[in-house]
Known about the structure:
Chain A is an all-alpha fold. Chain A has helices spanning 2-14, 25-30, 35-65, 72-94, 96-102, 113-124, 129-157, 169-184.
Amino acid sequence: MQELIIIIITAALLSNVVLSQFLGICSFLGVSTKTDVALGMGGAVVFVITVASAVAFGLYQILELLKLQYLDTIVFILVIACLVQIVESFFKKYVPALYRALGVYLPLITTNCAVLGVALTNVQNNYNFWQSVACGFGTAMGYLIAIVILAGIRERNAANDVPAPFKGSPIVMITACLMAIAFFGFANLSI
Amino acid sequence: MSVTGIVLAISFQNVMYATLMVGGVGLVIGLLLGVTGYIFRVEIDEKQQAIRACLPGNNCGGCGYPGCDGLAEAIFKGEAPVNACPVGGAAVAAKIAEVIGVEVADVPAAEGKKAFVKCKGDNDTAVLNDKGRKVCKYGCIACGLCVKACAFDAIHVVNGVAVVDREKCVGCGACAAKCPKKIIELVPESKEHMVACSNHDTGKEVRAVCKAGCIACGMCAKNCPEGAIAVEDNLAVIDYEKCTNCGTCKEKCPVKVIR
């Protein structure tokens, strides 16, 4: 149990998927204008990554059995695409407002390298089932934390008098950069 | 069996497994998606889709609903009248009425409107300060917010003043809502004469800041055969309910501020 908690904290803070592994930047920058939308996106990513890790683990066992490990990428992508599709139709039915707000970024979770990244990291580290799920959940929580913090900062930044050359994307990049530096501080966390 | 034969046989078996594996996963996923797609299906009535198809689809928001989808839903539920789309006007109202089976005659479509910028002080006629901005504190400041707001490319800043392209304007009111000076008005489509000034100062003060402004002389009000014009707070105002497009005001205006 303790080991699982360590995996979650490591994945969420020490090696944050966005801020220190630089995966999933697209939606991180794209959907971080409002905190509630960012929260919805984070929630969707948590679901997709956690379930994807679990399913990917099971599938990898079959691949190993058949000595087809080289197929992991393509099979994982299939699973991820399927999960994203389910999330999308779920949102469309029950939270249409969020569905519209997320727009193209929702299907883009499919190609969000964070999701595939976790599945492949799990395989590389030879994690067992629960370790895989914990790693997936932790990574997704890291994404959620990062995108919600960035959205919060951007909301406040919108009211600030940003110098003209930095308006729009540049200031967001700088904000993300400073966040990455701040998260670097977690590297010294000894657990 | 030769060596190459064995290699071929093994690789064939591998390819078979790989194909079956990926194909199998694809099959399972396809079934799963079919089932979830059925569970999470969103039921949109055919009529609502038909109404949506009648609407212009620019999502300008002129009707007050979030885009054309929003209006289609409202019309379908009976919350909005069939002529609620200010852009489509009578033609769209008639089509929608047909779709939901209402008599077109029952719903006289509201008359279309066109946006009008109540300022004609361009960079030549208005007095500019040393920064090149107009001194007049009422007129168009050429900020361009209306240009950005317009989804129909119907308003442009020309020589320091916003000008509406009446051919393209659909009267959605997006520009009027964005104008920081609140000088864009929606005028009934059929009316031809408007006062192109918003300055409420006295004639002398107006002359000091703009050659094109209304000096509140009252010539238009005195000569209007319908009594449709009044000078209110140093500015001529036309009552479009009474205006008959006779054009007397335009003729009599000494500063040619009435178009």
